[in-house]
From TrEMBL, chain A:
CDD domains: SLC5sbd_u4. Belongs to the sodium:solute symporter (SSF) (TC 2.A.21) family. It is found in: Membrane. It holds the Pfam family SSF. This is Cation acetate symporter. Gene3D superfamilies: Sodium/glucose cotransporter. NCBIfam families: Na_symport_lg. It comes from Rhodovibrio sodomensis. InterPro entries: Na/Glc_symporter_sf, Na/solute_symporter, Na/solute_symporter_VC_2705, Sodium:Solute_Symporter. It is a multi-pass membrane protein. The keyword DNA repair does not apply. The chain crosses the membrane at residues 6-25, 77-95, 116-134, 146-167, 179-200, 247-269, 281-302, 399-427, 447-465, 477-496, 503-521, 541-565. Keywords: Membrane, Transmembrane, Transmembrane helix, Transport.
TrEMBL record, chain B:
The chain crosses the membrane at residues 26-49, 61-81. It comes from Rhodovibrio sodomensis. This is Sodium symporter small subunit domain-containing protein. Residues 17-92 form the Sodium symporter small subunit domain. Keywords: Membrane, Transmembrane, Transmembrane helix.
Length: 596, 95
């Protein structure tokens, strides 16, 4: 059967499943729309949170970023898992005890200020929309490949699907659909990894294969990888080449951003009890870890496979012939991905071979001069295609490729839906009902929620046409924004009674503006290309920090400003102190729920 | 309020205060471990661990790509377990 048909079958069948579940569990009331009636078991909620959490960034993009950079991008692995520890201990149980629907609602009540609530809405929308842009980038890559269309067309088709899908159900529909999506995406990610790990190391468990012996060479896999890529002038895979301060701050930004992202936090409003909120975070991390422990293996093994395909006679032999690429089925993936404009190769010196090496490396430039090479001829390899192309690179059967297609789309769709739900909740519940029209009917509130979803998709799609980076990098910026604006104010709201309304508003605004301005100055204003003032590199940037690392500094700004302003203004009233006391104790969580 | 046969721990306010202090203590210890395995072993202390070989590379690399994640899972389940005990001890669990 043709691969195109197989892809369509897998993608179509998985979509039919999600839509079926979404219709079966459709939200009837506003309570169900936002919080699924708080009837969700911690393990179910953990799986749904994992699907919500693992987006196009984790599934499609992350392994590729690790593959081409190596150790330094371990930040993604530690950052996107370490945040769950903060979530479980610093936020989730207390916010569940508080027992409302949205994050701005907590901010508004704890800081007894409608202004604080509105600023919370603003922070939430900025972080979430940036996040959706990253998802759209991933959706565009996936659709362009599997429907064999250009990247732009793929993006537009993806936007239509996300819209239809997210508008259909609220949290209840989304929760059960997301469990199905988790199963599809984890199978799609691990099955090819198992095959590849067996091929290369004989070990069927990819995370163990990563540290095992490479069968063909008899060396440890990572040592083998280091050898072949340094032969081609690239940095050692396992070495720390980048800036240490940036790596630490980037990891920290991802961690606190994880704990500050509204679409993840609202998941913990849906569990029945405070103790379940803690367990839910643990289960979510277990489900997430299955992918996160596999991803570095996928990255390293794919890098090795690609290098071997480009240098079939070894790195000291002759490079692959163009004729082989054109005729051998092992190289079909290069031709199909070339059509998406995300992969490119060009025989610059006309010797009928494609030399892939680091042409910035002086030693390689000497070798190139001796051999008559005129620069690296694998001219383009978009990091975001690595995971999707991986089963083809490893020559796996057609059904595995179809499964990966379905998995990538499941990852992107589930997260986009969760984010859109958080945005629409903030707009309809906090902005419309909370401020503009307090007497709006349930029906009107649901309608405004859906309008907000549609508007967000349009904005994210437009900006996704010229994304500020690869999917995972754009998503990392969203984390920086959430880290600097939402996390500090939630944490202070629970762990200190002293921070007051003015402190919270000043803290959120300064954290948000500081981070956003820094990101825009390095990535382009409103992410429009070529409007940036500084290059986004360690050496060229304003404070020697890349835009992805600035969120942690923004969070510090937020904390410092909030405390300073609070010290200079009136103390929090007694009833707020009582509220904080009640949030800290699990007793009475059922009553908090019954209020609604 | 309490119908259990546990030792009295003073007034409700007193219980809440002690409960919260115990909670903070568990959090601080957990976060120390959290930082040690990720920022410590995974990044800053990696040069110190380079003598310990793991499958073609060193222990710091393993912590950065796998070890820290496994420790995070243990930390959360341990926290959930400790807090359930604490909830019951101070009679603040959900009924």
């Amino acid at each position: 059967m043709d691969q195109y048909v197989i892809n369509l079958l897998f993608v179509g069948a998985s979509f039919a499943l999600y839509v079926g579940i979404a219709i079966w569990a459709r939200a009837g009331s506003t309570a169900e729309f936002y919080a699924a009636s708080r009837g969700v078991h911690p393990i179910v909620n953990g799986a749904a949170t994992a699907a919500d959490w693992m987006s196009a960034a984790s599934f499609i993009s992350m392994a590729g970023l690790i593959a081409f950079v190596g150790y330094d991008n371990s930040s993604y692995l530690m950052g996107w898992t370490g945040g769950y520890v903060l979530l479980a201990m610093l936020l989730a149980p207390y916010l569940r005890k508080f027992g409302k629907f949205t994050v701005p609602e907590f901010i508004g009540e704890r800081f007894y200020s409608p202004t604080a609530r509105m600023v919370g809405v603003l922070c939430l929308i900025v972080a979430s929309i940036t996040y959706v842009i990253g998802q759209m980038t991933g959706v565009g890559v996936a659709f362009s490949r599997f429907l064999e269309v250009s990247n732009t067309t793929g993006l537009l088709i993806g936007a239509a699907v996300v819209f239809f899908y997210a508008v259909l159900g609220g949290m209840k529909g989304v929760t059960y659909t997301q469990v199905a999506q988790y199963i599809v995406l984890i199978l799609a990610f691990t099955i090819p990894a198992v095959f590849i790990s067996l091929q290369l190391t004989g070990n069927p468990v990819p995370p163990l294969g990563l540290f095992s012996e490479h069968t063909a060479s008899g060396q440890p896999l990572l040592a083998r990888l280091n050898d072949v890529i340094t032969d081609l002038g690239f940095d050692k895979y396992t070495a720390h080449g980048g800036n240490t301060l940036n790596m630490v701050l980037f990891t920290l930004s991802l961690m606190i951003g994880t704990a500050g992202l509204p679409h993840v936090i609202i998941r913990f409003f849906t569990v029945p009890k405070v103790s379940d909120a803690r367990l839910s975070a643990g289960w979510a991390l277990v489900f997430i870890a299955l992918l996160y422990l596999t991803a570095p293996a996928v990255g390293a093994m794919a890098r090795l496979n690609i290098t071997d395909l480009m240098w079939p006679n070894g790195t000291d032999g002759q490079a692959v012939q163009i004729e082989t690429i054109q005729t051998s089925p092992k190289y079909d993936w290069m031709k199909t991905w070339q059509e998406t404009n995300l992969l490119g190769f060009e025989d610059k010196n006309g010797d009928g071979r494609i030399q892939y090496y680091n042409d910035q490396n002086p030693r390689m430039q000497e070798i190139a001069a001796q051999n008559g090479w005129e620069g690296n001829e694998l001219t383009k390899f978009n990091r975001d295609i690595l995971v999707l192309a991986n089963p083809e690179i490893a020559n796996l059967p057609g059904w595995v490729i179809g499964l990966v297609a379905a998995g990538g789309l499941a990852a992107a769709l589930s997260t986009a839906a969760g984010l859109l739900l958080a945005i629409s909740g903030a707009v309809s519940h906090d902005l419309v009902r909370g401020a503009i029209a307090p007497n709006i009917s349930e029906k009107g509130e649901l309608l405004s929620a859906r309008v907000a979803m549609a508007a967000s998709i349009v904005v994210a799609t437009y900006l996704g046409l010229n994304p500020p980076g690869f999917a995972a990098e754009t998503v990392a910026l969203a984390f920086g924004i959430a880290a600097a604006s939402i996390f500090p104010v939630l944490m202070m709201g629970i762990f200190t009674k002293r921070v007051n309304n003015r402190g919270a508003v000043a803290g959120m605004l300064s954290g948000l503006i500081f981070t956003l301005v820094y990101v825009f100055m390095h990535k382009g204003w409103f992410f429009i290309p070529d409007t940036n003032q500084f290059p986004d590199t360690v050496a060229g940037s304003l404070f020697g920090l890349k835009s992805t690392a600035i969120g942690a500094v923004g969070a510090l700004v937020n904390f410092v400003v909030a405390f300073t302003v609070s010290k200079a203004t009136a103390d929090t009233p007694q009833e707020i102190k009582d509220l904080v006391d009640s949030v800290r104790s699990p007793r009475g969580a059922a009553a908090a729920q019954a209020d609604h | 309020m309490s119908s259990r046969n546990e030792p009295k721990v003073g007034s409700v306010e007193e219980a809440r205060r002690k409960y919260w202090r115990a909670n903070i203590r568990i959090i601080v210890w957990s976060l120390l471990v959290w930082a040690l395995v990720s920022f410590g072993f995974g990044i800053l202390l990696r040069p110190l661990l380079k003598g310990i070989e793991v499958g073609g590379t060193d222990l710091g690399f393993w912590f950065a790509q796998q070890g820290s994640i496994l420790v995070f899972i243990v930390l959360i389940f341990n926290y959930a377990y400790q807090m359930n005990k604490l909830d019951r001890k101070y009679d603040l669990d959900e009924q």
